[in-house]
Amino acid sequence: MQEPPILINDAARISSLVKLDVLDTPPEERFDRITRLAKRMFDVPIALISLVDTERQWFKSKQGLSAEETPRKYSFCAHAITLPSMNNPAHRIMEISDTLQDQRFHDNPLVTGDPHIRFYAGFVLQSYDEYNLGTLCIIDDKPKKLSREEREAFFDLGMVAQNALQSLRYEDRDLHTGLYNRRGFYSVVDYALDSCIR
Q1: Which band of pLDDT confidence, cut at 50, 70 and 90, is reported for residue 81?
Q2: Cβ–Cβ under 8 Å, residues 143 and 119
Q3: Which of 30, 73, 135, 160 could bridge across to 77 with cysteines, CB 3.0–4.6 Å?
């Protein structure tokens, strides 16, 4: 198994991810709607919005998978975020048609064990400051290949997921001052109260 390389700018990338304040937050319908749609559109058993943290990939939305996260070293998405030339739309998608034929993944624990990944496609999700944060990904336990039309549809759906992710940075703060708005204030208060209760 080939572990994913660590990006040169990984510390800045992680900082951009942390600023979104999305890690370990509850499921949200706007993200679940996208993964449900991806699962149906591409007829796959698993669809995820995965964010690559320092030592793990964490799932903001998941359909067909019970795990909340997996180690980064086993993560297909951690490979995807290292793709070059993100400005080229054709390079925003990493597709593995058959994992058993790919030297990077053929003996990966997520291939040899549950969920027995044989097909993977991941659209790289970028932050507003163009760091690669994770992917919208679809997974099958059978080999598969996306057609040109399917890749175009997957790209479009990936952009919807990226826009939803990027919009998080505006929701709790005033656009002009950067100060918490009412929603942000209540969010911080709720988090503080939950922490006190725990």
Answers
A1: very high
A2: yes
A3: 135
